Batch of 2 targets.
Target 1
Amino acid sequence: MPILTKVSGALREAGVEFCTDAKSLFSASLDHARYSFLPDIVAYANGPDDVSQVLKIANRFGTPVSVRGSGTGCAGGCVPTTGGIVLDLHRINFIEIDPLSRIAHVGAGAITADVDKAAWAHGLFYAPDPSSHKYSSIGGNIACNAGGLRALKYGCTRENLAALSVCLPNGETVKCGLPLRKFSAGPNLRDLFVGSEGTLGVVTEAWLRLLPLPKARRAAISFFNGDDEGFKGVEKILLSEITPCVLEFMDSETLECVRRRNPQLQIAPGKSALLAEFDGTESEAEEGARRFVEILSDYGARMAKSEKEAEEFWQVRRKSSQAMYELGDSKVNQDIVLPFREVCGFFKFFKGLGRELNLATPVFGHAGDGNYHIHFMYYAAEKNARERALAGMEKAIFKTIELGGAVSGEHGIGFLKSKYMPAQHSDCELSLMKEIKKLFDPKNILNPGKIYSVSDISGLQPLRGVKLPWD
Ligand SMILES: Cc1cc2nc3c(=O)[nH]c(=O)nc-3n(C[C@H](O)[C@H](O)[C@H](O)COP(=O)(O)OP(=O)(O)OC[C@H]3O[C@@H](n4cnc5c(N)ncnc54)[C@H](O)[C@@H]3O)c2cc1C
């Protein structure tokens, strides 16, 4: 009997729901990066027991399992590159708020924004806010250590996580940490799973830290002549006493696209921009924004005088990602992190690469974290354009690492960036990671081909014309 017939028979016997129809297989075949690999089976976990059953069965038959939250990942982490089972967690989505402990106990499939909203009713909030928060799952956030716009003040997912329940590849469940304010009872295994992208175990439940909901927010914006002046503005804010919760930079190429597509925003040509938001009590938020305007007064910084104006400032950032399709119908992009002192130097190099390769290079990102989304834009029909973009990105990544930066700040490695792991880490670091993987997953069934083994993607093409819910 073929192995997959045995696997589906065992899943049926264990009472795990699964699908093998073409539509379900295709939906589970890709993430936001749009490289599609069809699985053989999509299994839907209704609770932790189903996760355990799927992993026990996969272990018995040596079947690969790709763990899937919402599929908003940008590195191909949940994509079943070796076929087998996609284990879909979206149904484990309960949310319980404990206001006394300021903890949210949630299922791995709970949607990030829903957790935040559920906390509001108790005067609390969940701080990590990836731009995908209306779609991404908490399990996916933990697996990638997702950041977001507010990471500058509140940290990424790791800093807001109290404890985890994880199902190991052999089907056994372990609790990592406890939902307490403090925990010093031995090494906290929780931290091993944060950022491990579903290669060591499947997160089934999480206990997340909540914070008192700020009473007020104030937005401010500054426009600069070109990029260098903008980076100077960022430095001035970072060297000051203020801590915005949001500090987002849009370079002049990005802003030109936003300007062209959105004349109603009345952006002057040739500018870069820095958007900031301050939160806290009324007076804290007001004072933060006032100081931002004062520090950047040479550049005409402005504080929003109304909610409507604040929304207009935010539109400049929100429109950035889509607007850059003014410069091409396709992109190769990364979410690098740079040491603050190297930002100007790196971008001189990056823009030079763009000129050399005759490709547009718009950049925007979380300036307060040194985490920039860098892009090479191209037209797919243009001969060799994609190859040029890939070659340029490789040079940009090696430069980032040479300068002491990181290939990813929040999207993770998946299979799309695994080729950079040997440049990012020493042999010793890499072999430790591989040993840990072997210890947890000796049969290499969980997300095989991700992070630790180098993938060559040069011959692969992302699908075009596929619309995803968050597009
Ligand atoms: C428009 C857009 C904006 C984005 N903005 C941001 C941003 O601001 N900040 C940011 O950090 N990211 C951002 N992302 C990337 C993405 O949303 C995050 O990486 C998110 O954390 C992925 O969550 P997911 O549920 O979609 O995970 P998936 O894409 O389903 O999976 C991602 C990885 O997590 C693993 N995984 C998923 N669930 C589990 C689980 N329960 N247990 C173990 N492993 C699991 C998968 O195997 C895979 O390796 C953005 C994406 C899009 C499309």
Target 2
Amino acid sequence: MSVSKSDAIAIIGGGAFGLSTALELSRKGYTNITVFEKDEEIPSRWSAGNDLNKIMRAEYEEDFYTDLAVEATHAWQTPLYAPYFHRVGYLNVVSGAASQKAVGTLHRFQAAAEKHPEMKPFFHPISGPQDVRDVAGAWQFTGDMPGWKGYVSKYDGYVHSANALRGIYREARKNGVRFFLGAKVGAIEKIVYEGSGKSRKSIGVRTKAARFHAAKLLIVAVGAAAHKIVPEVGAEVSAKSWSVAHVRLTDDETAALRGIPVTYARDLGFFFEPDPKTNLLKICPMGGGYINTNPSTGISEAPQELMRFVPKDDEEQMRELLRQTLPYLADRPLVEKFICWFADTADSDFIVDYVPNTSSSVMILSGDSGHGFKMFPIVGRWVDNLLNAPDGKQSILRWRWRVPKQKAKGESFDHDVSWRIGTVREIRDVQGQEAVKANM
Ligand SMILES: Cc1cc2nc3c(=O)[nH]c(=O)nc-3n(C[C@H](O)[C@H](O)[C@H](O)COP(=O)(O)OP(=O)(O)OC[C@H]3O[C@@H](n4cnc5c(N)ncnc54)[C@H](O)[C@@H]3O)c2cc1C
């Protein structure tokens, strides 16, 4: 199906993938683009990108994603994106207590950073705590960092993701993209189709308030909520989540930690330079994460409600990371805690393709697998490439629509991803452990 520059394009979801697409298509001359976003404002409380910061590291275990992340690093250095990119370096290590799995993953990341011609000059090995202070520049870390080994890449850093979403939202609006926000006008209930089987085709969307909007092309970018709009995605996508928390610092403490690298101990978790505006230091535990399996389908689906808590074990792990690095913070209250949901795939590959049996009228951007924010400036290019593919097909095979496999009872792909350490648990099993769930 060909889409002309004036045809109506509806993008469902104003998160990282949706906004990037809206901006890119508006730049490419498409003049009739509408974004539907369920929250009242952007960044949405449901967006996995609505956060102080995300790691911007270019080295991956595979050249394919490394090359994309290098391309994204260049894009983060252009005037529109540069205000959000903080190139403070990325300290990637394991502690002396790390599992073989964590050590193996670290070595593969290290090999990628060491061999890439552009990253190589920024790479420095770290063979112990003194190197963390002297080579990585984290001189403020007074903890004993037992057995810490790995590398620092000064090519990398972090991006202020909530501000980046705000900035690109503003830019897309300037370029003429229309936004419908909030429960009444922006929340989409479903895609409306005509025909069936192979001749099925979408004609638009229906909002939760039962209003119909016609569109020639629908682009579904709803993150962890993919199943709600495209149920056919089935077991190919699993809604998954991790804990996020913060430590509130004083002005002086924030100033003292200025410029620390993103610090990632693969067996414990990671934290970032404190945000000077809020004095919050963001910290996350590394773990297998949490799923929310629908007992009737066996598929993990994103919960509707926001979850403002972190499980006790995660909290203990974050405190241990602080104890090893910044011990004076280890017993501070953790604040602004939440569970953050993303769309996971078995192989961590994204899905950027048309949904089958829609006559190419519905495209899905999904499977960010918890590593998609770094690609924010270039996601829209992938959509434009697919729209212009001479044969109408996704040329990147690994991003094609995969036929959902039937999972045997009890089978799960959730433990297979190399860079995630730990066991995947049902969120309902840890929900009672601590604190409250906010229904917002
Ligand atoms: C804890 C955590 C840490 C992460 N850390 C990193 C990192 O360090 N580096 C990195 O590169 N990536 C990281 N990520 C991944 C990154 O945040 C995601 O890859 C990225 O946000 C995915 O973008 P998206 O647009 O697919 O989904 P989202 O950003 O989640 O956006 C989906 C949007 O769809 C909207 N929506 C949902 N349903 C509807 C509906 N029915 N109608 C209308 N709108 C709807 C939502 O409100 C939301 O705005 C992390 C993710 C998590 C959870």
